[in-house]
Amino acid sequence: MDDIIAAARLADEAGLDLFGIGEHHRLDFVTSSYAMILSAIAQATKKIRLTSTLSVISTADPVRVWPVCSNGTKRCNKY
């Protein structure tokens, strides 16, 4: 988790426009809750836009996923 936040911070400092997190549901991945990780990244970064790069709709309620990921042009409402 710390490495992901550090990578996002580095991307922000380097001037990249977008940083995305994909959702995975395996024991060797930490990103089963990308919204929580994006929240932590939003606190650690200043200008970079944040987004989900993969949402597994079959494991989530699509009605709850839509407002979170429907607007990729904003900073995910800074969570």
Structure notes:
The protein is of the alpha+beta class and about 80 residues long. It is built from three helices and two strands, in the order αβαβα. It has helices spanning about 1-15, 35-45, 60-70, and strands at about 20, 50-55. It has a two-stranded parallel ribbon. Strand 1 (about 20), helix 2 (about 35-45) and strand 2 form a beta-alpha-beta unit. The protein is globular, with a radius of gyration of 12 Å. The protein starts with a helix and ends in a 10-residue tail after the last helix. Mean pLDDT is about 75; it is low at about 70-79.
Supply the key terms.
79 residues; alpha+beta; two-stranded parallel sheet; 39% helix; 14% strand; disordered C terminus
Query: What is the string of SSEs from the N terminus onward?
Result: HEHEH
Tell how many strands the DSSP assignment holds.
Answer: 2
Which sequence of strands runs across the widest sheet? 1-2
- The number of helices is 3
What shape does the CA trace take? globular
Distance between the termini: 17 Å
Q: Helical amount among residues, as a percent range?
A: 25-40%
Oligomer: single chain
What structural class results from the helix and strand content? alpha+beta
Mean pLDDT value? 77
Low-confidence stretches: 72-79
What is the rounded Rg?
12 Å
Q: Please state roughly what percent of the residues sit in beta strands, choosing from under 5%, 5-15%, 15-25%, 25-35%, 35-45% or over 45%.
A: 5-15%
Biggest sheet: strands, sense, closure? 2 strands, parallel
